[in-house]
Automatic annotation (TrEMBL):
PANTHER family: OS06G0641600 PROTEIN (PTHR47953:SF19), OS08G0105600 PROTEIN (PTHR47953). It is a single-pass membrane protein. GO terms for cellular component: membrane. This is Cytochrome P450. Its cofactor is heme. The keyword Transmembrane helix applies. GO terms for molecular function: heme binding; iron ion binding; monooxygenase activity; oxidoreductase activity, acting on paired donors, with incorporation or reduction of molecular oxygen. It comes from Nyssa sinensis.
């Protein structure tokens, strides 16, 4: 988190908040979002497909899939497959440093938005919103765990379903960062958002 905050703060300088034009320069932010979606895709299974013709997957010892078979693509498992990823259960955004893997449906090892004709039409909106919101939250505040809680105590367990989210909501204490005008102050009015307040994010994409 500190590495990402350092990138954002050095890039944005003394402006009151991160602007949309700043986002393109934030390369580590993009890696963090990719890594989050690799480990915690919002939808673990893609929309069901039905095969039109017979095909074989997994080489000679693999599987024959017959026509009109309903296929569920498990992107959660693909994102944590050790054949695709080194140390797949470790959150390590730097793994995207030396490659051009993205989530636009061209790289089958990373499919949080699906692929092909049924790929998520909200992809651009989703990524734009996530990057912009996250950048501003990390720019305007430092974040601490409440009540002496330690990082190891934080549960990353997920609640299954069509979409997955954190089983235990994340609670964090925002500490104002000394930029001139705070985003929270702009949105809510400073008096309604004291630094001791505890924010609860019920989200599947969590970075700490
Ligand atoms: C982090 C945010 C999001 C994620 C991870 C996500 C992921 C997905 C996935 C995995 C699919 C199935 C794709 C497939 O089976 O190949 C999908 C479908 C879809 N998504 Fe998203 N989505 C997100 C945000 C959005 C937003 C913001 C919108 C709309 C504004 C949206 C609208 C849709 C629609 C309409 C479909 C169905 C497309 C179809 O069946 O043809 N999604 N999304």
């Amino acid at each position: 988190m500190q590495k990402l905050q350092a990138e954002i703060r050095s890039c944005v300088g003394k402006k009151p908040k991160v602007g949309t034009n700043d986002i393109a320069k934030l390369t580590y932010l993009k890696m963090v979002v990719k890594e989050t979606l690799r480990m915690h895709p919002a939808g673990p299974l893609l929309i069901p497909r039905e095969t039109i013709q017979q095909c074989k997957i997994g080489g000679n010892n693999g599987y024959t899939i017959y026509p009109k078979t309903r296929v569920l693509v498990n992107v959660y498992a693909i994102g944590r497959d050790p054949n695709n990823w080194k140390n797949p259960h470790v959150f390590y955004p730097e793994r995207f440093e030396d490659n051009n893997i993205d989530f636009k449906g061209n790289h089958f090892e990373l499919l949080p938005f699906g692929a092909g004709r049924r790929i998520c039409p909200g992809l651009a909106m989703a990524i734009g919103t996530i990057e912009f919101t996250l950048a501003n939250l990390l720019y305007c505040f430092d974040w601490e765990l409440p009540g002496g809680m330690k990082r190891e105590d934080m549960s990353m367990e997920e609640q299954g379903g069509i979409t997955i989210h954190k089983k235990t909501p994340l609670q964090l204490v925002p500490i104002k960062y000394n930029c001139q005008v705070l985003l929270a102050a702009v949105i809510l009015g400073e008096d309604k958002f004291p630094s001791s307040s505890v924010l609860c994010f019920v989200s599947s994409t969590v970075i700490i």
